[in-house]
Design a protein that fits this description.
Helix content is 30%, strand content 23%. The longest helix is centred in the N-terminal third of the chain and has 13 residues. It is globular and about 65 Å long. The structure holds shikimate-3-phosphate (S3P). The site of shikimate-3-phosphate (S3P) has 12 residues, from helix 1 and helix 5. Shikimate-3-phosphate (S3P) binds next to helix 1 and helix 5.
């Protein structure tokens, strides 16, 4: 499926609620299934990625009912999963594969995890290494460090470890913390920089024996999780596309309702404000996951430096943030971009090649991206998503700023995180 998108001349205007948070939706099914009773989750994201997680747990005997945008997960406790009849197919979803590895490492039945072509190329050694240290037997079936993964069943608890993560990754942290639920004693994970903390919050909310001390989180295994209902806010990573579209296109003003404003996810707002964006947070409520409305208007941006420690707080927003940098006056430096290269595509390559077609030069220097900024004209052309949802949506917003009509090829991937993106784009124009 291709999109044709014309230069926008009137601005983006309106009030929207973007889809529910993808990371929290995954965790709602995973921890809901492992908790002791049923859990009602309002506003679940029915996107391709989250449906993979949901179907995987159904295949392991968990009843999950759906009513509109809400689900009820009938948790059966840490030992309630059943051996699936077939391999679990996790499509494009890195979160499903890495976090499920942590769940399955502690089961008394074996499983096979398979991804699509993109997921089967992404590094899995980052979960294989800590899980193996915990005594799990987890092997790439075709060699290397990639899926398909075969995980053997275990009849005894895992061993607790103190794991120092080599990279800041919420997926890896979550994998180890959940495996820690199946270990006898205290497991700890230390990350080099703070990454999103939805897992820690939900584990605390479900009364897990978990403690946070700076960048270290400790969890005591083999304790029951006590189920409680909750609501998922809108995904700030999805909102980011229209937030930046709104800031960059003259005459724009959008109100975003119920956006998740977890401090470990608002890096994008902090950086945009630093660049001069007019973003006001209203109706802020602190809850399991803080939430609020955003009132965003067109503004002139200036370049900035994004430090390495800020990257995990806006990792999924870097493609669209690069577009903001292109239109800002002066230079933007994004430091510590290595993790971007192992996402659904090598996002550095995907950005550099698409931006080049628009006449924009993005310079890659070791671990940094340098964008000179002050571009006045973005050339219209044909772009490829390379099968990466966030690249498709970044190029959609870039097309609105172009000098004519653009085509974006291969846009089906957008359904992995943002079903309805195209419709909301029409609604705002
Ligand atoms: C996610 C964590 C991030 C992010 C991904 C979702 C999660 O990955 O890029 O879209 O739900 O934990 P890493 O933590 O591996 O960087």
């Amino acid at each position: 499926m291709d999109w044709k998108i014309k230069k926008n001349t009137k601005g983006l205007k309106g009030e929207i609620e973007v889809p529910p948070d993808k990371s929290i939706s995954h965790r709602s099914v995973i921890l809901g299934a492992l908790a002791n009773a049923k859990c009602h989750v309002s506003n679940f994201l029915f996107s391709d990625d989250c449906i993979r997680t949901l179907e995987a747990f159904r295949a392991m005997g968990i009843r999950i009912d759906q009513e509109g945008a809400n689900i009820t997960v009938f948790g059966k406790g840490l030992r309630g999963l059943k051996s699936p009849l077939d391999a679990l197919c996790l499509g494009n979803s890195g979160t499903s594969m890495r976090v499920l590895s942590g769940v399955l490492a502690g089961q008394n039945f074996g499983t096979i995890l398979i991804g699509d072509d993109s997921l089967n190329k992404r590094p899995m050694d980052r979960v294989i290494e800590p899980l193996s240290k915990m005594g799990a037997v987890i092997k790439p079936m075709e060699g290397g460090s990639h899926a398909p993964l075969k995980i053997e069943g275990k009849n005894s608890p895992l061993m607790p470890i103190n794991y120092k993560m080599p990279m800041a990754s919420a997926q890896v942290k979550t994998c180890v913390l959940i495996a820690g639920l199946y270990a006898q004693g205290l497991t700890s994970v230390t990350e080099p920089f703070q990454s999103r903390d939805h897992t820690e919050r939900l584990l605390e909310y479900f009364s897990a024996d978990i403690k946070r001390k700076g960048l270290t989180t400790e969890i005591r295994g083999l304790n029951e999780l006590i189920s409680k209902d909750f609501k998922i806010p809108a995904d700030i990573s999805s909102a980011a596309f229209f937030i930046i579209g709104c800031v960059l296109i003259e005459g724009s003003r959008i109100i975003f309702r119920n956006v998740g404003l977890n401090p470990t996810r608002v890096g994008i707002i902090n950086v945009l404000k630093r660049m001069g964006a007019d973003i006001e947070i209203i109706n802020y409520e602190s809850a399991l996951e803080p939430v609020g409305d955003l009132n965003v208007s067109h503004s002139r941006l200036r370049g900035t430096t994004i430090e390495k420690h800020e990257i995990p707080l806006l990792i999924d927003e870097i493609p669209i943030l690069s577009l903001a940098a292109v239109c800002a006056t002066g230079q933007t430096v994004i430091k510590g971009i290595n993790e971007l290269k192992v996402k659904e595509t090598d996002r550095v390559k995907s950005i550099v090649s698409n931006f080049k077609r628009m006449g924009i030069i993005v310079e890659e220097q070791e671990e940094n991206l340098i964008i000179k900024g002050s571009y006045k004209t973005l050339k219209s052309d044909e772009f490829d998503s390379f099968g990466d949802h966030r690249i498709a949506m970044t190029m959609a917003i870039a097309s609105l700023l172009s000098d004519g009509e653009c085509v974006i090829k291969n846009t089906k991937c957008v359904d992995t995180s943002y079903p309805g993106f195209w419709e909301q784009l029409q609604q705002l124009q």
